[in-house]
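Write out the 3D structure for:
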Amino acid sequence: MPAVYSTDEISLKERFTFWNDVICKTYLTVDCAPVAGCPVSGRVSIRQLGRIEISEVYSPAMVYNRSNNELRGNHEEHYQLVLLLDGEGALRQDGRDVVLAPGDIALYSASRPSTFSSFGSRTMVFKIPRQVLAHHIVDADRLTAVKMSSYSPLTSMVGNLMRESFVISECTGLASQEKFVGGVLDIVGVSLETIAGVRKESSVKGNLLEKVKRHIADNIADSELQVETIAHRNNVSVRTLNRLFAAEQTTAVKWLWSQRLAASYEMLAQRKVRQVSEAALNCGFNDLSHFSKAFKREYMISPNEVLASGHRTH
């Protein structure tokens, strides 16, 4: 029988603390920040499948952030393979950002900073020890925060196997479970490497794009950071820069804008600032009115509301 943790029997006053403890003890140490105005209502069902832990998670609207503060003293050596079943989610790690829709799958590591945002979602999660995954995927760290799209036949195959994992864990012995897990992880490795385009030609462009993204992330507070500046500092033309981002169905301007908004949301939700204007300036916005309108258009809530109900780090 699975271990089940639910907020249903927990008082409204204690729900956040309960949910925060469940997530930190079950998965990894994170700072949980509830989305303003959304109830904290969630459920986790956990089973063991061979050497990996599988779970089904009904998550409230919540930002799960693992920064260097959470990494310090908490050395979890595992990966999370996440299949989004319902709702919407977003993952950020190693300068890569992916938005997940139902049927999409992504991998991330517990050993480096990450942010997983749930906008009210149901997910299937495989918690995989690092040494186990290493037998099936070489250098898995290069494949974190790479979206396996639901439109891919390989992703559909992996997703179906993950869904069946609960049944497999009950009706088979340990040896069979290990073979099943090994097969799933082999397919995951092939799928990620195919989608990520780790062949030599694609890798060069991918490395350049990651370098550009890191530059943007490191200079997010620079209000003078524009496409021309980014291109010049990375020794590429504006045309090349736009081609790099076009491969991810976006533009350099849109990606920069989304990073600034996401960074400001994190500052406000976690009360790293005292005023909305401070978050705006720290993320490269000079026009507070323009920032507030863009923020509300993106998140359907004002920055003042996020700051007012933000969660302080324990």
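Strands lie at 3-6, 31-34, 43-49, 52-66, 78-93, 96-100, 105-109, 114-129.
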